[in-house]
Amino acid sequence: MQKKTLLDGQKIQITIKRLCHQLIENHDDFANTVLIGIQPRGIFLADRIHQDLEQILKNKKILKGNLDITFFRDDFRRKDGLVTASSNSINFIIEGKKVILIDDVLWTGRTIRAALDALLAYGRPEKVELLVLIDRRFSRHLPIEPDYIGHQVDSLNSQQVKVTWASEGSEDKVILISEPPLPKLA
């Protein structure tokens, strides 16, 4: 197994700050904008974005929630064993608000499609935008594109992009994992 570090510590922090400033540029004081982290992996990035935005905007209260998409996925019945859902933590209505969906890696687009379906249980937003740390841009199964991109990666479907966070006991890091090619038979 080959591992290549795409982003780590300082580079991730700089990327998150850049994304925050892009959000401020488009949403000003966040009076009508909410952040929604997609569970399970997008919540770590959403927490960091939320924390940095409130620090940059001098403790302005920005609404943030976490959205579970387990039963909205098109593949949840295909998995062996019981499916365990996470809990939603959205204590506000999104009706008429601008929503920024946040996830760590955009790959096929299926997670985002499920999130859009799940989001409607909380009202009809004025607008939905997508922010991702990593965009695996040549792997889409659905026509979904992010509005805010931390880093783009051209990868094969056989490769995996793994994001780890200091807040979950690891370190801030994005790794591209590849299986070594099979040896050629003579």
From TrEMBL:
Any one GO MF annotation of this record: uracil phosphoribosyltransferase activity
CDD domains: PRTases_typeI
Signal peptide: none
Keywords of the record: Glycosyltransferase, Transferase
Documented EC number(s): 2.4.2.9
Pfam families: Pribosyltran
Phosphoribosyltransferase domain ranges (all copies): 4-161
Name of the molecule in the record: Bifunctional pyr operon transcriptional regulator/uracil phosphoribosyltransferase PyrR
Species the sequence originates in: Pedobacter kyonggii
Gene: pyrR
